[in-house]
Amino acid sequence: PPAPPLNETLDAILPLPVDLRLTRIGADDMQVALDGTTLPLRSFGMGIELQGRQLAITDLELQAPPGQLSGRLGLTLAGDYELDTSLYWAYRAEDDTLPPLAGQLDARGDLNTLQIEHRLQEPAAVSTDGSVTTGLADSLNGADGPLPLALDLQHSASSLVPEELGLSIPALTGWRIDTLNLTTRGEPDDLAIDGDMQIRALLPGEGDSTPFNVSTRWNSTLQGNTWQLGQLRMEAEDNGLEISGQVDWSGPLTVNADLRLNAPDPGAIYPLPAGLELQALQTDAELQLTLPDSGLSGEVLLDGLTAELNGQTLSGGGRLALQDSALQ
After folding, report:
1. What is the pLDDT of residue 208?
2. Which residue of 23, 73, 162, 278 pairs with 57 in a disulfide if CB–CB is 3.0 to 4.6 A?
């Protein structure tokens, strides 16, 4: 038979006022078996207090290298199970494959809907605020149907440097994200991901290069195995690039995108050789790529390419094809 609703179980277990206090319980140097995997547990401890239907867990400490967790939790064992918790977490990879990770989570509300504040502290300062809807309280109390999971979160960060995040990408050396704002809203299988960011970019190459600012904003939707990009617009020194398209990984990875470039002054971004002056560069392009096991395949179609080179008007188009990672 199905398990009874949790509220009925609690009514049977806690029919009378209860006042229970355990100042400290804990264990050291344990091995925990989980689904055939043995996890080392260096230390575990907490205090427990139960007064009526109010449960409080205090001085929580969990050391399970490479991770650790500490904090407190308060939970009402009735109704929608009101919750108030503050947790610090950290992860230190033993093989240095990841930079140190750490953050602070504060959550309030109940097991149906939680208001959360998360502050990622390492490897960068990233703030997350908003609500998470789970419907867990209704489910525990006997409601039928799937959990109505939904997110409404805002994320923000500043002064992000790839090297400090453990990303060693030569082409991004000297780059910095000055500001980043991101919104995630919706259900996990239909999630809107919108945002904007300001980038301080630096072109790779020999000698001194002048940094330039890139303003980027986008709206997109994640649906199952498909990411739909409604529009991404990048602007740098009055030059603009718009991209829309779709990335699908339900089978072999496929990318389909439309691009529109409008660059009145490309030389403000990419220094040209002496004696060359390029202006009014415009083009539309279609991009189709597939990544099967045999290698990258696809094509790029250029349509309506126009530009002014040293005062002369140029126009044209073209097609670039790839088959098994080789140019055709």
Report:
1. 56
2. 73
